[in-house]
Design a protein that fits this description.
By secondary structure, the protein is mostly helical. It is built from 9 helices and 2 strands, in the order αββαααααααα. It has a two-stranded antiparallel ribbon with strand order 1-2. Strand 1 and strand 2 form a beta hairpin. Helix 5 packs parallel to helix 7 and helix 7 packs antiparallel against helix 8. It is elongated, with a radius of gyration of 51 Å. The termini are far apart.
Length: 231
């Protein structure tokens, strides 16, 4: 009889303790599953947006973040218009305005600059700019061949023009230089002929026609001396 009484007392005590510690239905956790399929115990009354409104645990007081904390950039829809500067920034595009005005005191520091610019503009408008030709040894060689054709037919004026064209395409060409010198001597333009003979000796001091050029210079020098009055 005593044993039955003790068992009944233990059962009543256990039932009372279980009723006292049972969770309420409003706060009882409900087993939910996230997108990965794992169970996630959340209170049934909680909202997913709480994670956005809750403060970042990695942020320290005073606006500074803790070392190693992940900093999330602000959302574009939360940027205030007042934070955007009113003046436009410098652009890297081709439409960027560049200040081309002269520096301060430029007229005093360079008083002749305006005159030089005006002279250059006037020369360009008047057609005084020298024509530039590209380096083309092949065309120079062809001009020498045509010049030789005219020279053999004693058309020295046409030969001179083709030798000069060859030197425009290939300056300091030794063959065109020596043949132009001979052609000018034939035409009686002795001063220009002497200049071309000297140019050949500068290009090829020991070239195959260096002796011919030196003899021509001596001959022209003798002719100049003989042409002077009193000789």
């Amino acid at each position: 009889m005593v044993r039955k009484f003790l068992v009944l007392a233990v059962l009543l005590t256990s039932s009372a303790w279980a009723q006292q510690n049972a969770p309420s239905p409003a706060t009882s956790p409900t087993a939910t599953k996230d997108s990965s399929g794992e169970a996630n115990d959340r209170p049934s009354g909680s909202d997913q947006s709480d994670s956005e409104s809750s403060p970042d645990p990695s942020s320290a007081p005073g606006g500074t973040s803790k070392p190693g904390a992940k900093i999330t950039p602000p959302r574009s829809d939360r940027v205030s218009v007042s934070d955007i500067p009113a003046t436009p920034g410098q652009s890297s595009s081709k439409d960027t305005q560049v200040d081309l005005s002269a520096p301060d005191n430029d007229a005093k520091a360079h008083p002749q600059s305006s005159t030089a610019v005006a002279n250059a503009e006037a020369e360009a408008l008047s057609g005084g700019v020298t024509e530039f030709r590209t380096w083309d040894p092949h065309k120079a060689s062809k001009d020498v061949e045509v010049g030789d054709f005219y020279f053999k037919r004693k058309n020295y004026r046409a030969a001179e023009e083709r030798y000069r064209d060859a030197l425009r395409y290939k300056d300091n060409d030794a063959i065109a230089t020596i043949r132009l010198a001979v052609c000018l001597e034939k035409l009686g333009i002795l001063d220009d002929a002497r200049v071309e003979y000297e140019s050949y000796l500068k290009i090829l001091p020991h070239g195959p026609q260096a002796g011919e050029a030196q003899r021509a210079l001596d001959r022209l020098k003798a002719q100049t001396v003989a042409a002077k009055p009193g000789h």
